[in-house]
Amino acid sequence: GVTTAGTIPAEAVFSVRELQQVVAAAGGKPVAAHAHGVQGVQAAVEACVHTIEHCSWVDARGSWGCYDAPTVQRMAERGTIVCPTIGRGWATKLGLQAAMSPALQAMHRAGVRLAASTDAGAIPNLPHHLLCDSLPVLQRCAGMTNAETLRAATSVAALACCIEHLTGAVCEGLAADLLVVPGNPLDTLAAVCAPLSVVCRGAVVQPCTRSEGRAAWASNNDNRCACAGR
After folding, report:
1. Start-to-end Cα distance in the chain
2. Quick one: which of 196, 223, 161 has its CA closest to 153?
3. Rounded to 10 degrees, what is the CA torsion of 123, 137, 108, 181?
4. Fewer CB within 10 Å, N side or C side of the chain?
5. Contact 23, 33 (CB under 8 A)
6. 49 phi and psi, to 5 degrees?
7. Residue closest to 88 by CA, chosen among 121, 55, 130
8. CA-CA distance, 203 to 175, in Å (whole number)?
């Protein structure tokens, strides 16, 4: 981990064989790998994990975004989902954006599915309900369209969490989880940051305002509604 004292993010903790044993022991359940370094990413892909968290492509020199093209291709072929944990703080980290954009764009072009994600809970002042603030940064860094970015936050995110049979799309048989927003998000992603109404399983719930923060959703007993709402 980046914030764990005494660790080196570029170094892989587990071998391919060890990760393969983990995947086998999971008995078909999805396995998520936390990987910053190139070696860790490669090992996770070879072991056929379900998702890779961060996928920062850190090389032995500590440089970020040093992606390996053959590994990216294998990720696309095996259906690996990448959760790049792009929080709203990335908006001011131009160096990080410059380092990671080529890797994110390479994965996107290859067909690797990117799930909108922020690393909320691990980063100070990064509450879960502000995922929407990170969407324009993800879009810009990965070279995605508005529609692709919205899918990253909905249907692809549902696939990453293995709840695509419950939510993530507007389809018959799925939960009626919807946002009513003051504009067309296909024209401007900012529209999703100011919901007029949140519909959870077909019932209208009170959306939180920008100032209410995490406390508004903490009072909601249905955590899945909170996630679907933002």
Report:
1. 27
2. 161
3. 100
4. N
5. no
6. -70, 165
7. 130
8. 10
SS (H, E, C) the chain: CCCCCCCCCCCCCCCHHHHHHHHHHCCCCCCEEEEEEHHHHHHHHHCCCCEEEEEEEECCCCCCCCCCHHHHHHHHHHCCEEECCCCHHHHHCHHHHHHHHHHHHHHHHHCCEECCCCCECCECCCCHHHHHHHHHHHHHHHCCCHHHHHHHHCHHHHHHCCCCCCCCCCCCCCCCCEEECCCCCCCCHHHHHCCCEEEECCEEECCCCCCCCHHHHHCCCCHHHHHHHC
pTM: 0.88
Tokens of 38: 């190139």
Q: Token digits for 151? A: 């899918």
Q: Which two tokens stand for residue 113?
A: 């599915």
The two tokens of residue 175 are 């939960």
pLDDT in the model for residue 210:
54
Angle between helices 69-78 and 38-46 (to 10 degrees): 30
> Residue-wise pLDDT tens for the chain (230 aa)?
777 888 888 999 999 999 999 999 999 999 999 999 999 999 999 999 999 999 999 999 999 999 999 999 999 999 999 999 999 999 999 999 999 999 999 999 999 999 999 999 888 888 888 899 999 999 999 999 999 999 999 999 999 999 999 999 999 999 999 988 999 999 999 999 888 888 999 999 876 665 543 333 334 434 333 333 32
